[in-house]
């Protein structure tokens, strides 16, 4: 088309505003749905503001030491009145303990969960599948104190035995090294208990996502003479990868926030301990539970500050996970 | 489809016709076996069920190597079910059952002890909807079959080029072999799927309405690909498009269901089926009076 022709054409009309008159029922439904969606955000925001409001003075007075040191010393005078100037609060050991326990939990739970999900989706006969899905979901509904008690009385003796094996054969790895032969109530045992607690949720999510693998891709793989394992590797895994990461992160979130089970099993010690087999560790949530009952008003504020830090760490970990999921790409979807 | 398969009056009594007989009477068309590739695939008295419902009754068809056979018929007449029995994809559906035999080079592919993955390597399949693996590049897609079935090849690059050339896609993708399969157009994706099937060197290629999701231009390209491939392998194509059947196939088989299970009404040289069908129902269908 030549330029002379272009100039002859009339000017483009203004773009029209496209509107529609919503029906009343639609308006009502929209309001219900929107308020439902907003309420969870509002509750989350209110918890955050509450923790910030309560803990701010402590964060201000302790500064960076709050997360870099491990002293926890709430000084009171003779009249049982807190003395803020002499009190020190630091949660470094608890923060690191939280990360250590939940990392152990996730590294044990994810492989088991993925294999369980694969079995349920691609191998299990439908009768077994139904029963197992119900049982695994039931595991998620189990009160965590029961996991804690079971972990303490039943799991710990055998976990100690595994820990000794790990120490014997992998003691040269710094994490598995020991200064003292105290294998009871270690971060390792707590991590094993946590892993059992998060297996249901990771399994559930992995199973859902494996179950959504597009049939036409599964058929394409089989039609190429693929074995079932080949199909899972080439089709199901790439499709499910980001979902599995998401499930693992939900599990990690639960493991980081878990309180009662860890409190029951773990020997809480205010010292950073990287030796996961040693019976000394920490966990922010359990520490809050342990201290809360007899805390002075000042200490309560410090616990709120610890809660705030846990909140933020969980947020950061989940954001990192989101980035990983986005980077690992929708290419498999 | 309703469950009235047991109505004797409605049953068709077409003898399972061997293509050899029909072919000898035909002129001007490829003769079975003339390509010296031998007998390809023989289906003997195939019945297929989904649960308790009989979907396909007593179909016997021979497919000669180096020929293209089109399966035509209205929806629900069992064409797709039939070709899925030819590479054992039928049993992929949990309630599916079958009876009869499928002989590949004289051996029953349903015989006990047969490795189904080996069958599917020899009898490839292209589906209705293009289904490249989206997590893989174009090159990886073509060679996916090797990986999936643990096959070793001397020179992957040569194989890659050969398959893409045979599928008529090489010139369009040779500069972006590392792009993702999903970046191609629908027609290109379908030819990529054809190339992928070729990489494991199947003897037979089943195509289940390969062009039904494609525009006319892409359809033409896929049809050209089919004609190129037909000299070296057996192709069986299900199509709803009678012009397509007429364009690409040497033989045409007409399937029909009267509400019960699908059955084979007539099979013959494509030009005969379209010009001088023996059965009035075939004539009604190919002349567009129903279906």
Task: Give your account of this protein's structure.
The complex is a heterodimer of chains A (333) and B (291). Chain A is mainly alpha-helical and 333 residues long. Chain A has a domain at 92-286 and 316-328: MetI-like (MetI-like fold). Helices cover 71% and strands 1% of the residues of chain A. Chain A contains twelve helices and two strands. Chain A has helices spanning 3-8, 24-62, 65-68, 92-123, 126-141, 144-170, 187-211, 215-223, 228-257, 260-265, 284-292, 297-328; strands at 72-73, 88-89. A two-stranded antiparallel sheet of chain A has the order 1-2. In chain A, 38% of the residues are buried. Chain B has 291 residues and is of the alpha/beta class. Chain B has one domain (17-25, 35-286): Rossmann fold, CATH 3.40.50. Chain B contains twelve helices and ten strands. In chain B, helix 6 crosses helix 8 and helix 8 (186-198) packs parallel to helix 9 (216-229). The two termini of chain B are 14 Å apart. The chains are: A mainly alpha (333), B alpha/beta (291). Chains A and B meet through helix 8 and helix 9 of A and helix 3, helix 5 and helix 8 of B.
Q: Secondary-structure blueprint of this entry?
A:
The complex is a heterodimer of chains A (333) and B (291).
Chain A: H1 3-8, H2 24-62, H3 65-68, E1 72-73, E2 88-89, H4 92-123, H5 126-141, H6 144-170, H7 187-211, H8 215-223, H9 228-257, H10 260-265, H11 284-292, H12 297-328
Antiparallel strand pairs in A: 1-2
Helix pairs in contact in A: 2-12, 4-7, 4-9, 5-7, 6-7, 7-9, 8-9, 9-12, 11-12
Chain B: H1 19-25, E1 39-50, E2 53-64, E3 68-72, H2 79-86, E4 96-104, E5 107-108, H3 116-122, E6 123-126, H4 138-142, H5 144-148, H6 156-166, H7 170-173, H8 186-198, E7 204-208, H9 216-229, E8 234-238, H10 242-248, E9 251-257, E10 262-269, H11 270-275, H12 280-286
Parallel strand pairs in B: 3-8, 3-9, 6-7, 7-8
Antiparallel strand pairs in B: 1-2, 1-4, 4-5, 9-10
Helix pairs in contact in B: 6-8, 8-9
């Amino acid at each position: 088309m030549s330029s002379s022709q272009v100039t002859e054409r009339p000017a483009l009309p203004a773009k029209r505003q496209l509107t529609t008159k919503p029906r009343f029922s639609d308006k009502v439904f929209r309001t219900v749905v929107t308020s439902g969606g907003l309420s969870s955000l509002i509750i989350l925001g209110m918890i955050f503001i509450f923790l910030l409001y309560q803990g701010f003075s402590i964060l201000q007075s302790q500064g960076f030491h709050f997360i870099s040191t491990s002293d926890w010393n709430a000084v009171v005078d003779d009249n049982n009145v807190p003395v803020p100037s002499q009190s020190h609060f630091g949660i470094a050991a608890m923060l690191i303990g939280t990360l250590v326990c939940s990392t152990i939990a996730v590294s044990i739970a994810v492989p088991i969960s993925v294999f369980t999900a694969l079995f349920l989706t691609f191998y299990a006969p439908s009768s077994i599948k139904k029963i197992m899905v119900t049982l695994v979901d039931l595991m998620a509904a189990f009160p965590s104190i029961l996991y804690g008690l079971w972990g303490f009385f039943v799991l710990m003796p055998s976990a100690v035995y595994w820990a000794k094996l790990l120490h014997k054969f992998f003691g040269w790895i710094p994490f598995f090294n020991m200064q003292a032969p105290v294998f009871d109530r270690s971060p390792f045992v707590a991590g094993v208990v946590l892993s059992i607690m998060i297996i249901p949720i990771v399994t559930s999510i992995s199973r859902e996502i494996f179950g959504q693998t597009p049939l036409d891709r599964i058929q394409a793989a089989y039609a190429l003479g693929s074995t079932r394992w080949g199909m899972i590797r080439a089709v199901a895994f790439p499709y499910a990868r980001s979902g599995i990461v998401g499930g693992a992160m939900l599990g990690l979130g639960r493991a980081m926030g878990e309180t009662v089970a860890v409190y029951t099993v773990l020997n809480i010690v205010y010292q950073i301990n990287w030796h996961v087999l040693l019976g000394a560790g920490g966990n922010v949530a359990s520490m809050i539970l342990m201290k809360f009952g007899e805390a002075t008003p000042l200490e309560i504020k410090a616990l709120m500050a610890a809660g705030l830090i846990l909140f933020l760490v969980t947020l950061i970990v989940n954001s990192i996970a989101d980035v990983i999921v986005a980077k690992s790409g929708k290419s498999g979807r | 489809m309703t469950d009235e398969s047991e109505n004797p009056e409605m049953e068709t009594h077409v003898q399972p016709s061997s293509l050899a007989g029909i072919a000898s009477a035909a002129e001007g068309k490829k003769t079975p076996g003339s390509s010296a590739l031998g007998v390809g695939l023989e289906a003997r008295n195939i019945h297929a069920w989904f649960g308790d419902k009989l979907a396909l009754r007593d179909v016997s068809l021979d497919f000669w190597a180096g020929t293209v056979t089109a399966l035509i018929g209205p929806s629900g007449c069992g064409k797709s079910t039939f070709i899925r029995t030819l590479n054992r994809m039928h049993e992929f559906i949990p309630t599916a059952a079958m009876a009869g035999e499928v002989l590949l080079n004289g051996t029953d592919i349903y015989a006990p002890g047969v490795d189904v993955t080996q069958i599917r390597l020899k009898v490839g399949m292209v589906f209705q909807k293009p289904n490249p693996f989206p997590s893989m590049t174009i090159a990886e897609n073509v060679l996916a079959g090797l990986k999936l079935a643990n096959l070793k090849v001397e020179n992957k690059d040569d194989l890659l080029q050969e398959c893409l050339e045979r599928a008529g896609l090489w010139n369009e993708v040779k500069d972006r072999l590392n792009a993702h399969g999903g970046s191609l157009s629908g027609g290109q994706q379908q030819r990529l799927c054809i190339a992928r099937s070729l990489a494991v060197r199947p003897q037979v290629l089943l195509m289940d309405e390969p062009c039904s999701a494609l525009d006319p231009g892409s359809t033409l390209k896929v049809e050209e690909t089919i004609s190129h491939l037909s000299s070296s392998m057996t192709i069986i194509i299900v199509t709803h498009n009678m012009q397509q059947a007429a364009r690409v196939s040497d033989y045409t088989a007409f399937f029909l269901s009267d509400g019960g299970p699908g059955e084979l009404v007539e099979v013959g040289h494509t030009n005969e089926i379209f010009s001088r069908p023996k059965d009035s129902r075939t004539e009604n269908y190919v002349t567009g009076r129903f279906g």
